[in-house]
Batch of 2 targets.
Target 1
Amino acid sequence: MKKAVYAGTFDPITMGHLDVIERVARIFDFLYIGIAAEVKKQVLFSAEERYELVKETTKHLKNVEAHLFSGLLVEFVKSMEAKIIIRGLRALSDFEYEFEIASANKNLYPEVDTLFLLTSLEYSFLSSSLVKEVAMLGGSVEKWVPPVVDKKLRDKYKSISHE
Ligand code: COA
């Protein structure tokens, strides 16, 4: 059985991530989505909220399973008995960072390989930060995120503005 792991922060999941997930799910027998619980960057959604949104928006994909993970990505990959890490590449500017983490992961766990998928052109500009900024300023992000994420963003910014 060919298994792969697609990991990230998913704060929140966007159509760009879903595009990668749906395409990978057609290539591999099984895809585990690893949602990093603790990350260096400041997050808007809690680990539990990020996990729930990934779970909800991928429930139509029968060979995809979302998991929260803590600690090293390679340890999560090992625990899922997988050897492939999937990353999406949006632009040339992603390459340097991706090269660094793919090399570090290979060094930490030599059996692992990272496969890169080009993000579809229509989402190549997208990032979770961009979605959050536009939503925070009251702009529409409905083309960039699934409806459940759109609603969650609105609720979140409403509750923050009432604090
Ligand atoms: N569509 C839209 N956005 C995309 C995208 C796509 N196809 N691909 C990446 N992005 C965006 C993300 O939304 C994110 O945007 P943001 O910075 O505005 O939040 C950015 O690109 C990169 O984020 P992501 O893909 O989630 O990766 P990350 O850098 O946040 O997280 C981990 C990477 C979690 C996999 C990495 O930090 C990790 O492995 N952590 C575990 C600890 C560990 O093992 N560390 C050692 C690694 S060497």
Target 2
Amino acid sequence: MTRRSLLGSLTAATLARRLNGLPPLTVKDARVIGTNGGGNYRWAFLKVLTSEPGLYGLGTAGNHYQPHAVIAALEKHFIPWLIGRDVDRIEDLWQSAHLRTYWRNGPINNSVLSAMDMALWDIKGKRAGMPVYELLGGKVRDAVPCYDHAGGATPEAAVESVRKSLAAGFRHVRVQFGAYGGGGFIPKGQGSRPEGGSDGPAFDEEQYVDQVPRLMERVRSEVGAAPKLLHDVHSHLSGMNAVEFCRRMQPLQMFFIEDVLPPEQLAWYRQIRQNCTTPQAVGEVFSHPFEYTPLISERLIDFARCRVSAIGGITPARKLAVLCENFGVRTAFQEGGENDPVNQLAAYHVDISSPAFGIQEENRFPPLVREMLPGCAEIRKGYLYGSGKPGLGIDIDEKLAAKHPLGAFPGGGAYTLDRTMDGAVVKP
Ligand code: MG
């Protein structure tokens, strides 16, 4: 036997041992499946096909405001790079895909990474014959508690809405008042406006700080101390208004206040910490996994609040959960009505296997979506359950998806911004 053939046979033996007798597996092809889900969704899924016939993985590149940019990034730049690579090396592929663009992170690149990462975990789980959470260490809880969405323009309507959520089995309920920002709006046409300017609802910080704690006090006094109440400020406050808002909310024992400040003003969380004990959930619009590091390591926040697909998938979400665990911070992965069932399941697998889990935002899908994506997670009595099938546990009916293609969007699909009385934009 020559030295070369000896080395060759050693490598083959090592590989067979590493894969427990399974043959090496490579990416044969990948394709993007864009769909509106039979409604107003803007979803882009990636199906990664392997060298083993019939074995594939599914991931989401969800980005509601720029789905066509993500699809172009996948098709023109990412898929040609991925084909032929070793499917088993998820961490190495994540690292090299992350650095492949030289300029890294951001909502386009990390949505691309998410699609790949989820598909690779899906394949690994299918290969092992196990749900992904088993590969992450197994369940540390029996199901994943979710918070429901409730609210109303008046305290009476909000109370009724919270009671409905509680009756459905939710223990955690987010309460908003009126518009998504949740109160603090000067109604359309009212107040002193600039000539020729907008006359739509105008956001007013001081009104928000004045109104919302009083509205929430009414809700708390009606529903009692037991329900865990949440509220999302949607980054609408600045500086000392954010500090004062959290201070006024302290007696209401909120489960958390979400994004009281925009991502440009994170240093103010130090002032909030020094002035009150209201728990802070932060980071819905984060896409850079390292934005969290100072907030978590200095214990300036209580919940990491990003969307799994926005930060690059299960691999970085799991690392974020471990970082949270080490510093006593919890996770509260974001969903939101426009998000998709594949991302929901990716979050589920991290949630159910992480000691740092705090809460999961709910998301429910209409019958057509459940038919298009068989294996969708289910929410029953406030808890999220996965399908229990190997991998992520979800599939896609491509023929049905093709009947509901992703179209063009009026105005390019931009996020609708709130404005102040003088017509300036408010950070979402
Ligand atoms: Mg939010």
